[in-house]
Amino acid sequence: SAIGFYGRQDNTPIDESFTAVTPEFSHKLCAQWEQAAYAAQSANTRVCTLRTGIVLAKQAGALAKMLPPFKLGLGGPIGSGEQGMSWIHIDDMVQLILFVLVTMELSGPINATAPYPVSNKEFSSQLGKVLGRPTFIPMPSLLLKLAMGEMADLLLYGQFVVPNKVLAQQFSFNYPTLPKALENLLT
């Protein structure tokens, strides 16, 4: 699954117990995925649905797509920049999956994000800082909507998702903060 399950949200932190979701496309799609997974649940079968945030990796995924404009000094916040970006370092993602597999107390939805989500504006600022590039050129919402249609909503709206279930079970993140994660990946 994905954190898109929560739909558009304001700046309030969201954990696995959050139920006031917005019934829009991303929520409906994730809910269908999770519903299909829960069909396998039984007295002998534990089901965990990882609600994955933006996975940051060196050579693939969202970060790789962001790097070219940022390296040219053309990167910046998207729209207002206030939307949440719930992310996780690839190494922590792998460790979290392994942790969930062996921690029998965990079941149901589990947020696979770092414990400190940031705004898009903060993400852009930190990425520019690590790259030694300016980040003052914003991507206008209208331009993004013209280019991407409804898919632009995935970038213009976000959530501040926190992984309370794994934290309660003492999972330890190697890269809990964005600066530490970006420095590891890009320097």
Automatic annotation (TrEMBL):
Q: Which residues form the NAD-dependent epimerase/dehydratase domain?
A: 5-103
Q: Which SUPFAM superfamilies is this protein grouped with? A: NAD(P)-binding Rossmann-fold domains
InterPro entries in alphabetical order: DUF1731, Epimerase_deHydtase, NAD(P)-bd_dom_sf, SDR39U1
The DUF1731 domain covers which part of the protein? Answer: 139-185
PANTHER family tied to this protein: EPIMERASE FAMILY PROTEIN SDR39U1 (PTHR11092:SF0), SUGAR NUCLEOTIDE EPIMERASE RELATED (PTHR11092)
Name this polypeptide is given: DUF1731 domain-containing protein
